[in-house]
Specification:
This protein is of the alpha/beta class. Helices cover about 20% and strands about 30% of the residues. α7 (about 305-315) crosses α8.
């Protein structure tokens, strides 16, 4: 299938630039796969869509402030790094801007941080391998001077203080993501309480969202695109509870494409999820048969993106693109700080 089959027109004014004042005030488009239909709703109605015994699976990864701003020595030109993958202690692969000016052995200084860095390798797509030098724990320095890694379609000069809290789920505990699992941004403690009061089991997995989740698809034939592996883990108790619910005919609802990828990566051909920690390397495109996920909560994604392909694999490309067209016509808010879609 050609990548152009996943294109759609989105007016710029529908790309959410700020979060709503309240997390759960977002709109929710409910899509019924069996009926091939949808209806407009609000996220506050989400608990009513689940029943006692259903399992809601959330991704507890925590975004760290992965965007660093420094200057190149000795010339003083500004440099921006988006830390993408830790290679080993104090060595990271990073998306660099401007990458063409950052060459092998170039030095970078981060003012007032007691932190320097050196380029030790150059990879494709503007990625540089950076070795950091500091007398402190590098994670502590990054947490102090880094910025939330907001996606480029949020057209602001930089992150603001509120982004540190709002570009993070309320249940984020495991540090390691460079992008938020955005379907989870709508949840509040009150919504989670209502779900549990209905008898819904809330289980946590971890998938540290990396560059692969939002890397552009650069091939025409989508079967040639491979989403880069991302670290994930599913605990023994969580796997046991999910398998028990599945065997009892209960639904497994994944909050976000990252959760869906982790669950499907951990599920055997026989349909049983296995407790494990490793790298999720599964690329989900139309034609993939889901083994574990029965329902999906997700935000609205970019045209021609791997995330849109995953949702299309779950619900059908024509239905998803028709629902997206409806969302555009009804002025839903798109992308990370936008509204959501519940696919049943």
């Amino acid at each position: 299938m050609d990548i152009t089959a996943f294109d759609f027109h989105l007016p710029d004014n529908l790309i959410a630039q700020e979060p709503l004042a309240e997390r759960d005030a977002s709109r929710m488009l409910i899509v019924d796969r069996r009926a091939g239909a949808w209806r407009d709703s609000q996220f506050t109605e989400f608990p009513q869509q689940l029943s006692a015994g259903d399992v809601l699976v959330i991704n507890n990864t925590r975004v760290f402030p992965a965007r660093l701003r420094g200057r190149r020595l000795p010339f003083g030109g500004s440099v921006e790094l988006l830390l993408a993958r830790e290679v080993k202690r104090n060595v990271w692969e990073a998306l660099a801007r401007p990458a063409r000016r950052l060459r092998l052995d170039d030095q970078i200084e981060f003012a007032g941080a007691g932190l320097r860095a050196r380029v030790i390798d150059s990879l494709d797509q503007g990625i540089r391998v950076i070795e950091f030098e500091t007398n402190e724990n590098l994670d502590d320095v990054i947490d102090r001077i880094g910025e939330p890694p907001l996606p480029p379609y949020i057209n602001r000069p930089g992150a603001v203080d509120s982004d540190r809290q709002r570009y993070q789920t309320v249940y984020a505990t495991e540090r390691g993501a460079i992008a938020a699992p955005t379907a989870g941004l709508h949840f509040t403690p009150e919504i989670l309480t209502k779900l549990r009061e209905r008898g819904v089991r809330v289980e946590e997995i971890t998938l540290h969202v990396g560059y692969g989740t939002f890397e552009p698809v650069r091939v025409a034939d989508i079967s040639q695109h491979k989403v880069a592996a991302e670290r994930f883990s599913v605990s023994e108790p969580t796997a046991e509870k999910i398998n028990q619910a599945k065997s009892n005919g209960r639904r497994i609802l994944a909050v976000g494409t990252t959760t869906a990828r982790a669950l499907e990566s951990a599920t055997s051909a026989g349909g049983e999820i296995k407790a494990q920690s490793g790298a999720a390397s599964l690329t989900i495109i139309p034609g993939y048969e889901f083994r574990m996920v029965d329902a999906l909560l997700t935000n609205f994604h970019l045209p021609k993106s791997s995330l849109l392909m995953l949702v299309s694999a779950f619900a059908g490309r024509e239905l998803v693109l028709s629902a997206y067209q409806h969302a555009v016509e009804k002025s839903y808010r798109f992308y990370s700080y936008g509204d959501c879609m519940l696919v049943l």
